[in-house]
Amino acid sequence: MATRDEIADAIAGMAIFADLARPQLMGVASRFEEAFFAKDQKVLRQGLTGSGFYVILDGEADVVADGQKIATLARGEFFGEVSVLLGEPPTADIVATRPMRCIVLGGPAVEGFLVDHPKVMYRMLQASARRLRNANRRMTASQ
Amino acid sequence: MAGSLPGAKPFPPGEYAVVVVGSGPGALQTSYFLSRYGIDHAVISADPGPAGMFRKWPFFQRLLSWTKPYAEGAERASRAFQRWDWNSLLAVEPELRGIAPEFMDGSSDFPSRPEMQSNLSAFADRAGLEVRYECRWESTRHEETPDGERFTLVTTDGEYRCRFAIFAVGVAEPYSPSTPGIELSVHYADTRDAPSYAGKRLFIIGKQNSGFELATGLLQWASRITLSSPSPAKTSIETRSLVGVRARYVQPFEDSALGGGVDILSASTKQISRAESGALRVQLERSDTAAPFSLEADEVIAATGFTCPLRDLPALGVATFGQSKLPAQTDFWESATVPGIYFAGTITQGAAGLKKHGIPPNSGALHGYRYNSRVLVRHLVAKEFGVVHERPSIRAGDLRDHLLSEATRAPELWHQKAFLASVVSLGGDDGIRDEGIMPLTHFLDADGGDAIAMTIEADGTSIYPVVYVRRDGRQEEHALDPDPLHDFEREHYRRALGQILGRLSSGSNAA
Q1: Of A2, A52, A107, the CB nearest to B322
Q2: Tell me, what's the pLDDT at B508?
Q3: What letter does residue B345 receive in the DSSP assignment?
Q4: Torsion of CA B266, B267, B273, B278, to 10 degrees
Q5: Which chain A residues contact residue B352 at CB under 8 A?
Q6: What homologous superfamily is domain B182-304 in, according to CATH?
Q7: Is pLDDT above 70 for B32?
Q8: Rounded CA separation B456/B465 (Å)
Q9: Domains of chain A (ranges plus CATH)?
């Protein structure tokens, strides 16, 4: 992975960017930066401020809260948005479980990006709603 | 270290513990510290002399990195002066420190390219650094031997075998996108003399510093200048960091705002073709509406960046990422995928650290990577060559003032914000110890005893100290307030830090 064209190709099939035309995908590719994380490398750290919004291009990561693995994230999934939107530190570590490539947008740039791309914001909202629904189901099932 | 006869090229092919590739400031700085630790190493370079990119660039012959020769309260040989001097290499010997001002003629706090080249050449001479010049690294082998893993660097002068290879080869290979018709453009690296653009309509692909450097330098020559890339351009003043177009190059923004013959577009370049008139037709697509449009230009310059000339390292397994093909690196600038291969110089921007608030460290520039080199060598010699570093003792009563002094003056913290930290260990039988400068991510991820890391950080609106406390295996982050004069030794900070230290376990005796 390297060029903006290639990143635009890679994200074209992802749900969060599904409504974007090619020029907008190129805009995403130039606005985000690519990042690589080795196996076992921490991407986000629970309790530390200043994180960003990440979309996984390739690879996998565990979501680890208070030392407990609570989920696994893979290609096309994203993380860090809750921390950025609320202006609070992440509530979990994100740890690469194999080499992982992401695109990342620094926290201060996220609001402007979402305002410029309301369709992405809507898709993000849908995904967040699904996560909330699933969490509620798990809570209900455990009671 | 291999000696050399007078007049002979140093470092003949053979076996060395470490081979450094390059002769720019990153390579010189790394070789300097390896030498001071007495590590057997060779330095090879394809160039005919020292200074790397500064032998040729920036195109308009004036750097973006300043040195303020008369900074308040900072002798040139002092550590504090480094905060105001972005262009001198680091040295142990006082006479080798802060030498950049010697070569500046007083016309600007940004050295000219020749002044920078002289500065770096003088450092190499005075420090006695040897380089085997005009020796081009061509390919690499990675082999298991009875003595362990070895790298073989095949060069124009022969083969070099080593345990550790440190590549400081810059981000210097021109990159152009695969846009149809891009062959009708020239790359920034091939820009001609400014007068040859007199009266020309110029289209520049790219809105990074290199694009705006050309636009600024050609304002008086070109008849019209258009800059375009898909995303909006921001200035370093807006981002309050080195992310964005530097203030030196803001004139095109003003000309654009005033309708003065410069246009700054957010659009993708879809195609470049030759029109019947002989001019170039540039077809564009607006980023906001996807609407196509086109314009004519006499010249197209691709200010689209550079990539790392890593040759066959990716084939050896070195993972790369991003448009610049930077190698993925550990906290100590070792390849994340091929142990034993390290990087120095501007390539170390491939280790971005926490990149808090989206702001990267300044590892792409000399004033950032000179510290990376020192930390890298300090780490390497301790890990692989049995060097035991001094860990000066700090009296408990001095800890608070020590940390606040570091926050106020330590150049490593100021130049490598949220990336390099000044670390003090608290626990253990040997009391409070100054562990020196280390990558913040290493501090955060290491399983160590109780300790404190002091950093300087920025969030795009202000600059402030942050104290990281590791206590009983848990991490805490305490951001202190910003100060309008960046003086973090005021009573307010002494009280705030005193409260943090006071909450540490009484066993540490740190407060």
Answers
A1: A2
A2: 47
A3: G
A4: -30
A5: 35
A6: FAD/NAD(P)-binding domain (3.50.50.60)
A7: yes
A8: 4
A9: 33-142 (2.60.120.10)
Residues with Cβ within 8 Å of B398's Cβ and at least 6 positions away in sequence, in order, are none
Span A28-49, pLDDT tens digits: 998 899 999 999 999 999 999 9
Is the model's pTM score more than 0.80?
yes
Write down the CATH superfamily of domain B15-171+308-384.
FAD/NAD(P)-binding domain (3.50.50.60)
Mutation pick from A28, A30, A53 vs chain B, by most beta carbons of B within 10 Å, is A30
Question: B228-273, pLDDT tens digit by residue?
Answer: 998 889 899 988 888 899 999 999 999 999 999 999 999 999 999 9
Residues making up chain B, counted from first to last: 511
Give chain B positions within 8 Å (CB) of A45: 354, 444, 475
Distance CA A25, CA A16 (A): 11
Structure tokens at B362: 């300044």
The tokens 């860990």 sit on which residue? B391
CA–CA distance, A73 with A58 (Å, rounded to integer): 10
Phi, psi angle pair for A95, to nearest 5° = -125, 125
Two tokens at A37?
A: 């994380």
Measured distance CA(B111)–CA(B66) in Å, rounded: 7
pLDDT digits (tens, 9 = 90+) for A19-30: 998 888 888 998
